[in-house]
Amino acid sequence: MRIAALLVAGLLGVVPAAAQTLAPFTAEDMLDVTTLAILDLSEDGQWVAATTRRLRDNATTDHRRFGDPSYVAPASLEPLVIHTATGESRRPFAARLNIRQAAFSRDGRRLAILTATEDADGLPRTSLHVWDTARKALAAVPVTGDAQVSAGSDLVWRPDGSALLVTMRTLAQERAARAAFLAQVDGPVVVHTSEDPFLEWDGFRREDRIRTLVALDPVTGRTTGVLPETRLTSYRLARDGSFVAYLEDATGKTDYDVIFGTHNAVKRIVPGTPQAAPRTVAPATTLKTATPQWSDDGRVMAWAEKGEVFVQGVDDDAPRSLTPKPAAPEGATQAAEPVDGAESFAVSAFSRDGARLLVTSAKGWYVVTVATAARELVLPLEKEAARNPRLTLLDWTPDGQALLIQHGEPDRWERGIVRLDLATKQMTPIVKDTQLYSTIRLSRDAGTIVFQRSDGDRPADLYVADAGFTDVRKLTDLNPWIAGRALPASALVSYRDVDGTVLYGILRYPVNYTKGQAYPTVFEVYETFFDNGFNARAAFLANHGYAVFHPSVNLVVGRPGESWVKGVTTAANRLIDMGVADPDRLGVQGTSYGGYATVLLLAETERFKAAINISGKVNMVSFYTDSPRLGVRNTHAAEKSQDRIGGTLWEYPERYLAHSAIMRADRITTPLLNISGDQDPNVPASQSREIYYALRRLGKTVEWVRYVNGGHRPPNAVEESVDFERRMLAWYEKYLK
Predict the structure, then answer these.
(1) Residues 494-530: pLDDT tens digits?
(2) Which CATH superfamily is domain 2-26+482-619+660-736 in?
(3) Is 34-291 assigned to CATH 2.120.10?
(4) How far is 651 from 272, CA to CA, in rounded Å?
(5) Considering only CA atoms, which of 89, 111, 91 is closest in space to residue 101?
(6) DSSP H helices in 171-305
(7) What is the per-residue pLDDT for 203?
(8) Residue 39 phi/psi, 5° resolution?
(9) Does residue 353 carry a pLDDT above 90?
């Protein structure tokens, strides 16, 4: 807490005069920020494959085809192959492409790259290439015939590099999928019936899983069948290449308990033995909707079901519990509540040799010996979750003696990587500082660490380090131009909500901030915020004299609406007390769930003088079942997940009404700008229409901006993206300045 306070105090001074000479960060600049995604790291750590992306090149999508199983959304990406020792970077392709997958061969000498495009009929066309890392040469794989590598295929090399395991679909399958989609959206007559086992859009979502699995020669393009056509969810090759384990979609009907829920059977097959039938390892009734974690050799899987961890080998006949639940009290048929002392466990990862498994619970991290189910607590956690460090397992060390963990302090920006020694149970920092680390990848021997890093205020770049972080090298300079732009400084701010719970939020100061001067402040809400990181919209607003704050809230099932009032208003008080926020010039905005929160806030408080709702819902009753292209998503969100209502509309009608801002629109006094995309499949634009017409009818100040071709992110073109940001700024300039 002391470090956080010092950080805030240090940032309250006057920005150095040198910042005055920098150019402002504009809406057009937002289009040119380059970000990077890591596709693969070779096992020896010598090569990393990545893609870079700019919004300017990726502003347009055909949202009308959302849910079309034959549609491959466009992407304009630049692939990079980087030698980690020298930093030399190569571009396998001269132009930007839609890169779907990339994978290094076991020896790191070749990189398979799958790309996709769309033909004149709107069908996907894929291409497979192999990049030779030594010769720095690209070769196309001559796949012929009606079948092609499916756009959703993984690229799995055989151990000797002789073939790639890929899935394939025929153009006839794509045409049939496209025709079924068009019949659903174009009619002229569309019939829906409960007699069908699947909601139509839920069924469409599974169509692209109908595919064959083949071994493809990367030189000749010849294919050898491994698995005939089936509904294939995923697959993996055993480490020694002796068999393929795969998940087969065996879902019998739409599952209302899991968004996009799939019941998978686990099967195995030996490639090269066409007469051999696949062996069922576990039927769909065993795993249900769980996705298993696999041992490194691919011979054992683990999963959790209702907080209990199970393991099963591919040659075993049945699963075995590693965390059996305590027996229910004598005479009880079924305990209504968990038995005293019972823990709810989740699966993390196997050690390299598969002999041990890391599992986690609210009490801590445990190492379980797979053979005996003996369990040892290696990292205890505090009962109060907020006091625990933020932990993410990166991997076991190859020798199984330690865990490598991404670590962050719970109350300050002190972040990095630590080593947890399993014998001593001591954590040793490998790197720990105020920098922001992300997308950390380890080589197989854990001797090379590739990661993205930023100071939290600027876009991240790619770095490489040795195991001890004694040699850290920068591999990319993705945004050299941004050094000439004025960017805001950020700080972590703590505050208490109405209930006294300590919460944290991220403050971006106005560019050229002067201590003692209060500024118009925009609160951007969603759920929980802690780590900073480059935020283009905040930078844009900060260059126009606004402070931007991302507050956290403590959401409670059944009463989520209260949480924003309790958390956001006290966050405003904190910034006012700090002398940063002007109490008479507070704005609030949010996107999607944040837009929903924004309008709910307006019905409870008049403190905000301007508000923007981007793609947020306002009527939980009409929204509840209004997700045709998302299957059960909207009902599930309300009942069991993000919306936190806690049950069905018929169980808790009063909760649905209480969390529908439209029902209390007469209380809203804040000028509200609504922005939506007409093709949004997530939150239908009709939600923005409802609040617009309601507030207009009530004589309130309201505006509704529709991007006719837009989706959940409303703008759908370069010029629309600029228009989008400028409209929001203009709204605040009008009502906060």
Answers:
(1) 999 999 999 999 999 999 999 999 999 999 999 999 9
(2) Alpha/Beta hydrolase fold, catalytic domain (3.40.50.1820)
(3) yes
(4) 55
(5) 111
(6) 171-186, 200-207, 284-287
(7) 86
(8) -95, -45
(9) yes
